[in-house]
Recover the amino acids of this structure.
């Protein structure tokens, strides 16, 4: 097991270096100059420009800037934001719980709905439930997040008035940050109605963020179940005279979950990408919105280090998925 | 009274090109404690007929019969729930591919204890103790340790022993063995067959042995049923079948045995297809 983890960790090293190159390079490919943007409409004199560029290290050749960035990274220094001057890590840690909260709720929602829908669609293959749910999944998968989010806001917030339009909690409530997770903090605060407000703020963004993973999980579960249901060991389970619920829920599902868990893990990357759009639509103060704002400000350190941190999270989650895969698939575990 | 009695069993599959009849009006009778061999080439419908009895065919299959009784109980009139009281308890089945027939995600111990807990009504501890006894009975060494193994950690022969242990766990009255040795090495084939026959003799259960190996038939069966293209070509006791085969198809199967070779070239079953097809046509015409 330890060798398995170590071999997986070794893979992370080249991936990590690749991401630093991409993160560093892409933001510099964008047109726009951070120094000019900082100066704003007043502009800046060439002399002053040279001083600022030197302070920020932009006067050096790009490869030298990259090596400095990499050197700092290895010492745990992600740099400071050009705009707020605060360390990128501090900003990230302050905003990260909001994104995690949204992403976790979204993936739980997608799994709790997607897996049963996929199982049911497989069992009732060709039925109206199968047809409707799989068509729905295709529509969900194809739905542009931005448009889907706006549509939900217009209907549920605008027309029906059931949910708030944006933010994490109503301005009526104020309580200290304990965990950074609004659902937990609102409960800890003991303020009446705070938790309900946090939940109502979370519903639409998490539904929007869950839509694509839900569609993918439902379709993957269906196809995995269909494959597994034709296996000899499922026939054996039926030959034992076991109840259909046990044959499907224990014997088939356990095996069908192996590819589904991989899919769920891969959705974390999709969630991070989706969070950027979802947080922008719902003004959700998480790292997605922070990244978008930083890109428009050409805040190089924030973008390159933020991207790196997001990529690290995806890598760690994928590693965890690999480990879980070994847990539920004994053939992998015993290799 | 026979233990299993089936009259006019027909199984049709809905396919994209129309209905396909896999089993066409066969009768099956098995008496208590009897060993019935069902022989025929691949695609003759021998497995499908038995899967129909077990209720294990996919939804695309339509099973009809004039009569299907087990120990006098009408299986055709049973609800799925009533049927499950017989299937897996009174009638059990083992299959051709033992490793694929065991669930790769659970230990073999879990899989046999499941039978003991749900079908024999034992508690966890009693199920474990009985599982060890059963593994011992089917010749699995170090049964306590082996219970913790996953199917991929066992050989084909051992997996089939596990399948047999599961199948006899409830002291069934009928065991259907669907080509139980086809996927195994020749030396292991003999061991598994000997084991099956010993268990059958000890317990007095009836055994339906599906096979295409006439050698196996000669060694084990009391009675033989020969199937071809979903039809029953012949049924008789084992001695009569080998000494005086009636159907051209049975003669084909027997003459294709290397030990029966007379000329330079070993005849194949296909040499006799015309005669066999004529027999089916004649029976169809008579009906």
């Amino acid at each position: 097991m330890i060798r398995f983890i170590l071999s997986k960790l070794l893979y992370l090293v080249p991936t990590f270096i690749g991401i630093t190159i991409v993160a560093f390079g892409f933001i510099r490919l964008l047109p726009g100059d951070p120094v000019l943007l900082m100066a704003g409409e007043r502009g800046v004199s060439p002399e002053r420009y040279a001083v600022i560029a030197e302070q920020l290290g932009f006067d050096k050749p790009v490869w030298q800037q990259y090596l400095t960035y990499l050197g700092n990274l290895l010492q745990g220094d992600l740099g400071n934001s050009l705009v707020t001057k605060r360390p990128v890590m501090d900003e990230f840690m302050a905003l990260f719980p909001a994104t995690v909260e949204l992403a976790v709720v979204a993936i739980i929602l997608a799994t709790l709905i997607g897996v049963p829908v996929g199982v049911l669609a497989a069992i009732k293959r060709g039925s109206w439930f199968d047809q409707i749910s799989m068509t729905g999944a295709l529509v969900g998968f194809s739905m542009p997040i931005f448009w889907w989010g706006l549509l939900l806001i217009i209907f549920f917030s605008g027309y029906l008035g059931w949910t708030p339009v944006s933010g994490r909690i109503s301005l009526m409530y104020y309580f200290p940050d304990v965990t950074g997770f609004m659902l937990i903090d609102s409960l800890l605060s003991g303020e009446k109605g705070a938790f309900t407000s946090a939940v109502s703020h979370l519903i639409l963004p998490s539904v929007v963020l869950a839509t694509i993973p839900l569609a993918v999980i439902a379709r993957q579960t269906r196809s995995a179940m269909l494959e597994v249901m034709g296996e000899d060991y499922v026939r054996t389970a039926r030959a034992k005279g076991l109840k259909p619920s046990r044959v499907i829920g224990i014997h088939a599902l356990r095996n069908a979950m192996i590819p589904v868990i991989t899919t769920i893990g891969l959705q974390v990357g999709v969630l991070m990408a989706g969070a950027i759009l979802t947080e922008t639509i719902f003004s959700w103060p998480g790292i997605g919105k922070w990244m978008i704002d930083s890109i428009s400000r050409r805040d190089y350190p924030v973008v390159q280090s933020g991207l790196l941190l997001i990529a690290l999270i995806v890598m760690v989650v994928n590693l965890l998925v690999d480990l879980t895969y070994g847990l539920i698939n004994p053939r992998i575990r015993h290799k | 009274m026979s233990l299993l009695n089936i009259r006019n069993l027909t199984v049709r599959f809905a396919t994209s090109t129309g209905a396909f009849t896999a089993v066409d009006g066969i009768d099956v009778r098995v008496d208590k404690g009897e060993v019935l061999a069902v022989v025929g080439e691949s695609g003759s419908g021998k497995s499908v007929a038995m899967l129909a009895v077990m209720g294990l065919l996919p939804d695309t299959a339509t099973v009809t019969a004039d009569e299907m009784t087990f120990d006098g109980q009408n299986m055709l009139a049973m609800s799925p729930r009533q049927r499950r009281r017989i299937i897996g308890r009174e009638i059990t089945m083992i299959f051709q591919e033992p490793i694929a027939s065991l669930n790769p995600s659970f230990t073999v111990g879990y899989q046999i204890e499941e039978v003991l807990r749900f079908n024999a009504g034992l508690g966890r501890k009693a199920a474990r103790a009985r599982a060890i006894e059963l593994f011992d009975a089917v010749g699995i060494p170090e049964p306590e340790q082996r219970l913790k193994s996953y199917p991929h950690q066992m050989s084909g022969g051992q997996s089939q022993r596990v399948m047999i242990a599961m199948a006899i766990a409830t002291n069934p009255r009928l065991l259907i063995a669907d080509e139980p040795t086809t996927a195994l090495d020749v030396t292991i084939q003999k061991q598994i067959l000997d084991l099956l026959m010993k268990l059958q003799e000890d317990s007095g259960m009836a055994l339906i042995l599906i096979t295409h190996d006439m050698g196996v038939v000669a060694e084990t069966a009391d009675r033989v049923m020969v199937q071809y293209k979903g039809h029953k070509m012949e049924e008789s006791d084992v001695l009569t079948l080998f000494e005086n085969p009636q159907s051209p198809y049975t003669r084909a199967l027997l003459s294709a045995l290397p030990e029966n070779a007379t000329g330079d070239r070993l005849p194949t079953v296909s040499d006799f297809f015309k005669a066999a097809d004529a027999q089916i046509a004649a029976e169809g015409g008579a009906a």
In short: The mean pLDDT of chain A is 87. Chain A touches chain B through 23 residues (CB under 8 Å).
